[in-house]
Amino acid sequence: MTIKGFILSVRKAKNEDTIALVLSPTEVRTYYRFFGARHSILQLGNLIDFEVEGEGGSFLPRLRSLSHMGFPWLFDKNRLLLWHNFIKRFEPHLKDAEEIDSFYFDLLLSAAKKWDKQNPKRIVCESYITLLEYEGRLHHDEHCYICENRIEEEIALMQSFIPVHPACIYTPALPTKKVLDFFKSKKTVFLEDHEVDYLFEIVMKGL
Fold first, then answer.
1. CB burial class (10 A; 0-12, 13-18, 19+) of residue 176?
2. What is the pTM of this model?
């Protein structure tokens, strides 16, 4: 039986062997690959199709019959770099999870399919706000997380898009209405590029 999965991290083992953390629709799991360093398929962020051998043994299960499921933007260096920066954030977020539902795999697959058609930073922000809502971590509150007073025309965001007053964390501001509309619609269409850059940088601090 073949499995599809995104490679969340790859690290070297002994000799030319590698260890890969793979996100499939049902789990996040670590696999071993003999001579993996020789295989260009085993790269961060790649979507692979594979089989597993050595299940239930005392050693890590092994990847076999690998094939790469490519996307047209893989040869665009800027888009590839942004993809790596985005998918890297999933390893610390999911590494302690074992069984999961397909939300995370589907989120990445949906993003990957749009990556060459839209601004990737906008896709990251829209994917992240969807993830926050799914995990029950989206703060719709119009009160500052730090001082607890109401936020007026201008808003700032901490990690996890937690709302605060710009003055409370000494950071640039965004229009409150635009941010709250984004929280509701999950779309960046009404945000300027510099506002999307602001949100993107927050996502890069960690999921």
1. middle
2. 0.94
